[in-house]
Design goal:
This is Transmembrane protein 198. It contains eleven helices and two strands; from the N terminus they run αααααααααααββ. It has about 325 residues and is mostly helical. It folds into three domains: about 1-245, no CATH class; about 250-280; about 290-335, no CATH class. It has a two-stranded antiparallel sheet with strand order 1-2. Strand 1 (about 310) and strand 2 form a beta hairpin. Helix 6 packs across helix 7 (about 165-190). The termini are far apart.
């Protein structure tokens, strides 16, 4: 636990130990393997959370919102506690974890708060990337307030956009945040988080120390993981889902389509019966019982109700008469 506290305090330092003026040069020949168990466990957990964000960020919507709020609040409260030095080390950890759990529950249960926090992280990471790229291109901001303004503006813009384009930007934001967690964890295991310190030096307008190639390789994982996460979630894990219902929209569409098809089949069957009835009546195959009885009275003696034949004029068809108690009578033309 002491190693974890020392490493966290060192990581949040202003990177004064990693300036070129300090004379410290990186060792690019070997990868350090003497990891502290608490710190290694922390970064392993962050890597697993990042992998879940990248692949299942939108599918596990509430979990993503809760973990985002938990990590954010825990780091902020822990840094405040260590700067003020009001509590012992275990007290700082307990207070930060408790605040993280509380804020994580809020972001998980209140949907718009979770979307706001995730969008703020996406915009903040975009602002950090913009400052780093501008410094690499030789455009260094004049003061630190410019960087703070960029971070706040990009974070708020990301939050507002995420509240408006909820599904699409949630997928992009979870992939971005998860990729950053994995890249940070890989940087720790490869170079003891020297790339993280390099980024802190860049955004704090200091001159950072050059880092080794495997630190750049860890940083290069980030854009690749973002692309993998966006494609995977849009095409596979997040397809057909919406966080407001959390039920497959594809099943709903299939149900509606099936109901429409059943109604069309029923209507088509009714039209078929109606058409057959019209064909039969147009050929004289169905005659009302009253009309038939009137013909019987004119031609057939009243005492004979059995089956008989009507031979009339050449203009009349041959008529086969059934029992008058039946509902219909069949009429056919005999060649």
């Amino acid at each position: 636990m002491g190693d974890f506290t020392r490493h966290t305090d060192q990581f949040f330092d202003e990177a004064h130990d990693y300036n070129v003026s300090s004379g410290m040069l990186p060792d690019c020949e070997t990868i350090p393997l003497d990891y502290g168990v608490p710190t290694a466990s922390l970064y392993t957990t962050l890597a697993l959370i990042g992998l879940m964000f990248v692949l299942y960020g939108y599918r596990a919507f509430k979990t993503t919102m809760g973990l985002t709020g938990y990590i954010f609040a825990t780091l902020i409260v822990y840094k405040i506690c260590t700067v003020e030095d009001l509590l012992p080390m275990f007290g700082n950890v307990g207070v930060s974890v408790g605040a993280g759990l509380l804020f994580g529950l809020i972001t998980m249960l209140v949907q718009h708060v979770g979307l706001f926090v995730l969008g703020f992280h996406t915009g903040l990471l975009g602002g950090i990337a913009g400052i780093v790229v501008s410094r690499l291109l030789g455009q260094t901001p004049d003061t630190m307030w410019v960087c703070i303004g960029v971070f706040m503006a990009s974070g708020i813009a990301g939050s507002m956009a995420n509240l408006y384009f909820q599904k699409g930007l949630t997928i992009i934001g979870s992939s971005t945040y998860g990729g950053a967690l994995i890249a940070l964890s890989a940087d720790y295991f490869l170079s003891r988080a020297k790339m993280g310190h390099w980024v802190l030096s860049m955004i704090s307008l200091k001159t950072p120390q050059p880092v080794c190639w495997f630190s750049w390789a860890a940083m290069g994982l980030w854009p690749g993981l973002i692309l993998i996460g966006v494609v995977t979630q849009f095409c596979l894990t997040g397809r057909g889902l919406h966080h407001e219902r959390m039920t497959p929209a594809r099943h709903a569409r299939n149900f509606n389509l099936q109901r429409v098809r059943q109604e069309e089949s029923r209507a088509q069957q009714q039209r078929k019966y109606r058409y057959l009835y019209q064909i039969r009546t147009s050929h004289g195959d169905v005659i009302s019982q009253s009309y038939l009885q009137s013909l019987q009275k004119k031609v057939i003696p009243s005492g004979d109700d059995s089956v008989s034949m009507l031979h009339g004029s050449d203009h009349l068809p041959h008529l086969t008469v059934l029992n008058p108690e039946s509902a219909h009578t069949t009429l056919s033309h005999v060649p």
